[in-house]
């Protein structure tokens, strides 16, 4: 049993951390999330130059031949800095799906672009009424000639305003919630009939409502097999869960560290409030929740290649842990900071908002408790 | 022992209910729902109640109260919550008003009380300072006596709606050499006095509700001091107990749970309303049960008060549980709306929300209400009060 990181992985973490410390300060984050387009456009190219986008991709297609652990390392550092760029939808979901199940031509065309920072991908899977069920799909893809025509509405597509490409789940057969009949398409956002309504999110990101009106997609843009796409989608979602768990643990670390530091300096009643045992115990509980979250993030990352049932169970377990811990650590961090934890000015509130919303992403605690139990 | 209402009390309830139905207009209701509320939107219902003589039910009749008993006041609060009327700002009517008629002199009562009742004077609370949050008695805003004035220098913070206020009631240090609690005075200060600056503090959901208030050589007439110099802590504590009793918000929380249920009927999971899933139904049940316990604890407190016994440290329980319930309701509401909790559609018009109407602002309210366990005396301080004053620890 070995939980140590390789030399390359340590180098990766250090280079990401250094870049973010220099370029992604909290003040910079505040500046560019509040101006258009909501990010510093130069960062994505820097991510490419640092090899972050290529780290987990196969060497044959411009990658560095790493895997999910590399993505975990990147996302943990990203979580510490509130990074807004859609690394998960582009690298973990988009590139991941294509690398595993894309036709060779698709791999040859798209993967080097992603690795090189030339393409940003958003994952359009949720729908207005689907809640967390990945198979609940009303967006249709009807066969037309050699290609397909898409019609429908995808909800809260995170990163879509900055994306040039969308991974879209659509129904090619069956009823709304059937597990068969789901297909996955790679759609150029500029395709005729694709409309986006862009908006900021409550935690500093950007998202879109994406509508498809008679959008023509060639057969070459199908990922995997028609009608049998759900397994791919579930795998991609579990990988995304692992990545967002890592992101959340990075954010939780900042929340714990900031709270402990604050409690050592903030004096009331003549003493630093960190001297009060009641608060000490709560900060220990915050720290414990964070450590358990690190453990579960490692656990799920190391199980992503397992058989689907095992992988799903691991992902659900981790998501439950992170959902609960994120809520607890976030709320306590604000509470122990007192009034200033409520301000827009301090960083604490923004980390609190990010971990809060990660709970919703790809299924909240209730959803994953249910999925975990159904697999037991 | 009886928890039912008498026929007279039910008749009273009807009277209040029909007054509200006649008088709380759709415009007043809509104004409350705006993301950025106007000053008038806060005052319209206050003024309507004032016209009816009902804006300060808990005040002694001689000062403009209604003369209602505790049960009638309870019914009045319930009916307002049921109709979701605009909450009356507490700073004048529930905080400084009672301090003035309890500890003020006749000139002060004549000068300030009518204008608090009418809503003509908007008050804000100058208590907390950057260095004095939970440890309020350590406050440092200084008032130096010079002839018939005090010269005030210092800074208050977390001052709710100071940007609209006409007056501020301020705890100031008049004797820096005395023991902390024994060197504090209670001053009423006109916000138009030269030397006062108000600076906004923006909170987590982007709202401008609180402020910093700076005092730079502000001249305050001595006749604006309530009671005796250096005895202000007594008046301050009296006010704090009133502040925390009002915070339980049982009736408003009952209404909020109803709204949560409506939302969880509209939200579906695999075609089934969310409220029909075991998990969510269970969570709502737990919440309702917690609220019921809070309600009966409040009723017991009210029953004691109706026998003439003042609210004691047990009101800290109402503050703790009341705010925890409020926060839990909003937490579940955010859970209920799923992905549509994500859009920040604050700046969009009514018809342009990204998701369902009820999802609009759900996340913002969740983030904003984290303040409830911090303000009014943090829930940690409330626990300290119970530990010391009730349990003798």
Q: Would you kindly provide a written description of the structure presented here, covering whatever features stand out?
A:
The complex is a heterodimer of chains A (376) and B (393). Chain A has helices spanning 7-23, 26-33, 42-49, 68-80, 87-101, 104-115, 230-265, 277-301, 308-337, 348-360, 365-374, and strands at residues 121-124, 140-144, 147-158, 165-171, 182-188, 194-200, 206-217, 222-223, 267-268, 271-272. By secondary structure, chain A is α+β, with helices and mostly antiparallel strands. Chain A has three domains: 7-119, Butyryl-Coa Dehydrogenase, subunit A, domain 1 (Orthogonal Bundle), CATH 1.10.540.10; 122-227, Butyryl-CoA Dehydrogenase, subunit A, domain 2, CATH 2.40.110; 231-374, Butyryl-CoA Dehydrogenase, subunit A, domain 3 (Up-down Bundle), CATH 1.20.140. In chain A, the strands form three sheets. A four-stranded mixed beta sheet of chain A has the order 1-4-5-8, covered by helices on one side. Chain A is globular, with a radius of gyration of 21 Å. Chain B is α+β, with helices and mostly antiparallel strands and 393 residues long. Chain B has three domains: 7-88, Butyryl-Coa Dehydrogenase, subunit A, domain 1; 123-230, Beta Barrel (Butyryl-CoA Dehydrogenase, subunit A, domain 2), CATH 2.40.110.10; 246-390, Butyryl-CoA Dehydrogenase, subunit A, domain 3. Helix content of chain B is 46%, strand content 15%. In chain B, strand 9 (268-269) and strand 10 (272-273) form a beta hairpin. Chain B is globular. Chains A and B meet through strand 3, strand 6, helix 9, helix 10 and helix 11 of A and strand 9, helix 10, helix 11 and helix 12 of B.
